[in-house]
Structure formats: structure tokens, C-alpha cells
Batch of 2 targets.
Target 1
Amino acid sequence: MSQEERTRYSAEELQEFEQLILEKIKVAKDELSQLKESLSRKNDTGTDNTASTSKLLEDGADTSEKENLSQLAARQQKFLTNLENALIRIKNGTYGVCVDTGKLIPKERLRAVPHTMHSIEAKLAKNQ
């Protein structure tokens, strides 16, 4: 049976994707933890509150860096949520099926973007 005719991945194929996603979740959680740790260090102003021009410049740089870290942490949290949602789709049997076309998303795409719910054709069509 060709991939065009199939509407679902086999249990063995889903298990392969589940392992891939679990590994990505572990890495993503570690990275999120590091980002949060960096943010908490940036929020700790320390005890040296000397007022000077260089202190003001440092505060501006710190604020910018905090904003960047916050954005990275939010993006990482969203990625984690998407990966966890992919695990749910594996459990309920809808993983790997394009929500737009109803066709199987190619394995190569799922390996590259395991949390995707769209075939590349559907994604490209949306972006036009």
C-alpha cells in the first residue's frame, strides 16, 4: 500500500515518532530550565546599587537581555506545548495526518518538525 493510500501510521511508526518527540521534550525542558535560571539571575540586582552613568548603561543592557531571554523562554514553552500536544495526537491516533488535507504527512517532514499538523503543501498554500 503506498503512502498516498494510507490514512494512518502503524503502531511501530508511531512509536518511533513518540521516541523522537520524547527526546526533543527532554532537550527543550533542559533549555527552558536554563533560560529561566538565566532570567532569575538577571532579576537579582545584587547589593551594589551605586548610581553612575555606567550603571545606567548596564541597566539598559540588562533590560534588553531580559526581554530577549523572556522571548526565548516563551518560544521554548510554546515549542514544548506543541510537542506535548503531538504526544496526545499519537495516543488518540491522529498524529501525522494533515488537519487541512486529511492526508498523511510524509515521515521526512515529521522527523524534521515532529509537532507539525500540516503537510508542506497545506503550509505553503496557507502562506500564499
Target 2
Amino acid sequence: MRTLKFVKYLLAASIVGLSGVPASVVAQESKDVTFVVANPSAINIIPVAVAMGEGYFAEQGLNVNVEALNGSGAVLQALTAGQGQIGNPAAGPFLGARARGIDITFIYRLNPNSSLSMVVKEEAATQKPEELKGKVIGIGTADGAEASFARSIFGDLGMEEGKDYSFLVVGDGGLATAGFMRGDIDAYVAATSDAAILNSRGLKLRNITPERFRVFFGNGFAAMADYIEKNPDVIEGFGKAVVKGAHFAADPANIDKVIDHAATVNPQEGEDRAFSKALIEQIVVRQTPFDTAKGYGYQDLEAWQAWQESLVSSGEMKEPLPDLNAIYTNRFVEAWNSK
């Protein structure tokens, strides 16, 4: 796990000017927005970093001040206290906040795909997890989330550990490379950073995670309900800039500029450009909508139901919320994705 320093950064008029946005436009029309994030990585919020570097926020009349905090709990506290206008909490803590009566709304699903995935080598014949019967699955640790994730997938298929498949603890990231190369493992349960490390070392992977297990989406954007109602222009402009940034980041031809934008925000992420490239490629996949026709940021009820059922069954939530439809909105998706 790479440790990143605390980072606080500001999209200032001097930086915006580099993108060709007239300073007069920024001065006359800009609105200040504090965006609070759960960790200091710019790559995790790469569409935002790109929107900053390319001047997309300024085009929408926004001056975005981004502050890195320590986890989703701190993000939710900052939003509740009015110390931030938009934040990027994870779905689980967000649901917990709603259960406590906090009137906050999820506005943009940044990471439609789960942060965990079951992968095989790109050239492997295996297309589905059920084809791994009798095979060895690599995991980072014996009691980590990746083991539970794999058990859930195989359990759903009626496959039993020790009978239909087995685990081999091979460690995280680079250590898994050796497991694949020696033929010790046939598949691996990887986090986003693990897959990036493997790819950066020349081992191309293919994701075979079943669709229903990809719905446990990661962090997205949220804001207090009263702020949204009072500032719909800010929410619309922010999302438009982010979607434009996402499209820019998804174009392989832009990778060097994307890394530069991430490094401007967090210099550490520019130190190993090969790794940053691999990680950005994984993040882009994770942040691409399942159905691009519905647009970036779109949310569906089924995904929220899956999250709630998981939290209730684990005891993290005492009971289901009375109306899941009330906790999120797709109100701005069409405008965000319009040309």
C-alpha cells in the first residue's frame, strides 16, 4: 500500500489562467466551492484533477478548493458542519449517516465498479468464475476482504472452498505477479492498486467478476439536501466539469497530461509515472459507467438495495431505510452529460 501525504490544494486564478480561461470571467462569475475528499490521492478523483488542470471548473464559473480529510466519516462531518459543500464519501458510511437522520444526498456515482475484482491473465481461457472449479485462487491475506469477496462469488455459484476451489496467500500487488508467472495461481482477487501494479509489471489481466458483484460501488459525490436546493447551478456546473474531465482522462492519448494534472495536485503521484499510468488506467475502468447511455454519475436503485442489504445483514445498519429513492438523485445527470 502506498502511503500518501496529507494534501490540500486550491484551483487558483493563476492556475486557471494557464488553461486559457479569461481572468475576467473567473473574477466576475466564480463561486467558491470546497470539495472535501476522503484521502489525498488525486488519481482516485482523476476527473476532478483533470477538470482543475484543464480549466473546466472555471468554464462553469467555479473556484474549487479541495481539502483532503481522513476517511468518509470526516467527509460527512465536514459537510454536515458546512465546512464543505460537496464531498466524496463511500456508500457504506453515507448510508450510516442517512440512518442517523442526516439530510444528505448522493448526487454522483463516481465509481460504479467495485474496488475488488476477480482477475485472470488476459490470455487465459477462463471466462467465468465457475470455470475455476478445481483451481487455485490467489489472495493477499487469509482473512482480508478479498477472501470474503471470493467466497461470496463462489458461494453464489454453489462452489465450496476446499472442495471446488482453494486459496493460496500470495501477498499483495507485485507478489501476485510471481504467483501467476510460476503457475501457482489461476486467478487473483485484486484491489484497484493491486491490478495497477500487476499491469505495470507487464502482466495484463482480465476481469471476470460477475455483474451482480460489481454493483458494490465505491465513493461518489454527495451534498447536503438544502445546499443542493439553494445552489442547483453549482451542482450542475460541478458535474459538467467532472464529466468533461472523465472523458479527457479516458482518452489514452491524454495520459501524459492526466499524470501531470495528478502530479500538480499531489506531487507524489508523479514520481513513478509508469505506476501512475497503470493506476489511472485501472481507475478509468472503475469509473466508467456500466451503461454509458445513461451517463456518467447515474445511479440505480438496485445498487443501493444491494449495499443496504449487505449492511443490514452484517449488523452495520439496524434496519432498512424507509425510502432508498430519497437518498440519491439523478436530477442533474442529463445536464452533466449533454454536449
